[in-house]
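Dear colleagues,

As part of the handover before I leave the project, I'm documenting each prediction I ran so the next person doesn't have to rerun anything. This entry is a single chain, and its sequence is reproduced below.
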Amino acid sequence: HAAANEAFLEVVRVIDAQDENHAYAGEYYERTGDLRRARDYFQRGLEASAPTDDERSQNLAGLARVYLALGQLDSAEVSARDHDESISGSTELSLLPDILDASGRIDEAVAAARAWLAHRLEGGAARAIVAASLRLAELLIQDDAALLALPVLDRADSLAHLANLTAESIEALRIRGAALAASGDTAAAVRALREAATNAVEHPTSSGVRDAHVALGELLAAIGQVDEAILAFETAAGQVESTTQTLDADFDRVRYGDRNMAPYDGAIAAILSRTESSEQHRDLLRWSGRRKAATLAAATSGQPSSAPAWTEDLLSLDSRSALVDYTVL
């Protein structure tokens, strides 16, 4: 994919020559991990002559993300506040709650999310209201207020159905499962997450299928239903692998790979909870190999490689031996 990288670098050269559209260069460098260069382009976008409202919002959002990734939390908060205050459209999301949450200020994050939802209820589009509601519910769960999240989710789900927002309705069900689990109603949580997983398969998006099945798998593993958990992780991993194959651009693979190891990590954690046996070793090695293949696919060509063919002698370690399993990228 050197050719793809060269094509994007040519776009950056055009941006430099024309001194406009800096956010696109910033996003390219952000996704490929060059955060300081990304920051410089987002800053140049803000300093350009007469940026539009959309351009200003895009560059402020980029700066907030980059400062957060660099650990510069005060600067991230300033950029997030500027971004939220400059929003003119009816669909954009607030950044401030996420920045405050990442800074460990969960009470302030909840307050900011409440304020943003109230703002959206005054004049936002249905999708924006639902998104603000779902984010508030997640933060309430983190703030040990899961029962308060349930009515927020009820209203979000009702609006999602009225507006025919299927993906958002599935997401509301997933978060409901998390709220019910956090409040101690495990049986209801499992039912909600099973329904979310079923609906996600019937109306598939890459993130919807993955997130619903990972959440279901984690809960099933936590209550000791490991075999069923592995099946859920299997579905999530299959979605990750099929999606990765469709990603042609290098920066898209980087962005996608960063958040898609959860099915593999969940499966490995579930298998480790089983009693040690040769079967457990085989399952661990299979999932570890599969995780490597997915990681390499996300980092290179997008095509999954086959898991390594482990030999029987590797599965018969004595008490003084260990198998060190790692990936070098």
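The radius of gyration is 22 Å. Residues 23 and 42 are 5 Å apart (CA to CA).

All the best with the project,
I.
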